[in-house]
Amino acid sequence: MGRLGVKTDYEELRNAQILENKARLASLGLQKTVAELRSIRSKPQSEKRKYNKVDYFSTPLRRSSRLKGNSSELNSCGTAPLAKRKLGLFDEGDDEDDIEKRPANAPLLRVKYGLMLRLTPEALARRCTSKDRGTLYDPYLGICCHFCRQKKLCGEEDCKRCGDSDMDQPCLGKTDCSICHSSQGVLCRGCLKVRYGEEMEDVRANKEWICPHCTEEKGINPYWICNSSLCLKKRKMAPTGIAIFKAREMGYKSVAHLLMDQLQGAVKG
User: Fold this and answer.
1) Do 138 and 124 contact (CB within 8 A), yes or no?
2) CB 240, CB 231: distance < 8 Å
3) Strand pairing partners for 95?
4) pLDDT value at 228 more than 80
5) List of residues 6+ apart from 17 with CB closer than 8 A
6) Which pairing describes strands 143-144 and 151-152: parallel, antiparallel, or unpaired?
7) Any idea where the Zinc-finger domain is (predicted)?
8) 151 forms bridges with which residues in the sheet?
9) Which end of the chain is less enclosed by CB atoms within 10 A, N or C?
10) CA angle (177 as vertex; 192, 247 as ends), nearest 5
11) Looking at residues 56-78, what average pLDDT do you find?
């Protein structure tokens, strides 16, 4: 090993190569440093786009023939377009006191222009393929379930409302609370079974059936609450999601029975 302070052959060769490179750059006129190059470099200026105001009044405006009511086409379910229908309880000129309150599973649907509400043969063939929550979605004839919020026609074969579009008949696949008759008491067959452990046939046979909201408000069972995501959020509770598998593994009949036991345990604890 060499002594400290004594240059090796490698260092002498390296210094000689550095001097040679500097002389070559000087001969080419490239002896400016990086700092000098950065100082003389100018930033490119972005070009501003010229704003052109569009004159929308120079051409005729487009107007939808559907909104004007000129289209007579039916949707995929065979019902009329929204512009030709009036949804709600009362028609123009009707008095609210002259019309009796209808059940939540049989809302009144008035149709303008004398249109007939009917389902296509293809829709009728698909309507009863699923009995729990229904298969056919219909934004006009369908009744929204309070839990799953699916506005589908029921899959009950004997339902004249969903099958024959008879607005004077109740939907056999949706429940109706005997006290409030509101949308909060409307449940489809699937949600009624999974979330509350009840059968649709038993509810239809019981003319005094009460929804979970009225059951709690009347003090019949304060722990039998509605476990829909909307109602649980109002209680500052997290929605349960698909909790039926957990409830059945723990031996409960439905999600409502599981929540009832949890609420009772929280109060006692």
Assistant:
1) no
2) no
3) none
4) yes
5) none
6) antiparallel
7) 137-259
8) 144
9) N
10) 25
11) 55
